[in-house]
Design a protein that fits this description.
The structure holds 2 protein chains of 2 kinds. By secondary structure, chain A is mostly helical. Chain A has 1 helix and no strands. Classes of the chains: A mainly alpha, B mainly alpha.
């Protein structure tokens, strides 16, 4: 379960804009 | 230059293109118990961006299953309630048949985006959280 959540979190973060 | 909070009011996309905007919008959605809408939207973008390179297949399958399980499977979940039945069946089919395509969540993402544009985004612009910040 944990690794699934980690994977999801990583995926969400990868789509966010980087700090300007 | 235009202050960020004014740009956020231009469109949902200008809001979601700014880290501080996302943070504030997420705080508002959390208060309304629908932060999953935003998380799902970003998860779909992240999934599409994931390279289709060889060796990544297992990761993509695992991720597709995780997104499906967390947001789509439960018909009472906030995201699932805003996705059309046909779109849900399509995603379920893709997962069950292990047909993992970078675009498999695109339609669902569009439907959730429409929900946010018509509903939570305008409410956010009138919310205390936004107005206090502005």
């Amino acid at each position: 379960i944990d690794s699934e959540d980690d994977l999801l979190q990583e995926c969400i973060s990868s789509a966010m804009p980087k700090k300007k | 230059p235009t202050p960020p909070y004014l740009r956020w009011a231009e469109s949902l996309h200008s809001l979601l293109d700014d880290q501080d905007g996302i943070h504030l919008f997420r705080m508002f959605l959390k208060q309304e118990a629908c932060a999953d809408l935003l998380d799902f939207w970003f998860a779909c973008s992240g999934f599409r961006k994931l390279e289709t390179a060889e060796g990544n297949d297992e990761k993509r399958l695992k991720l597709a299953k995780a997104i499906y399980k967390k947001y789509v499977l439960d018909n009472n979940a906030i995201v699932s309630r805003q996705i059309k039945p046909a779109t849900k069946s399509f995603i379920k089919d893709c997962v069950m048949k292990l047909h993992i395509d970078p675009a498999m969540f695109d339609q669902a993402q569009t439907e959730i985006q429409t929900t946010m544009e018509e509903n939570t985004y305008p409410l956010f612009l009138k919310s205390d959280i936004y107005l206090k910040h502005a």
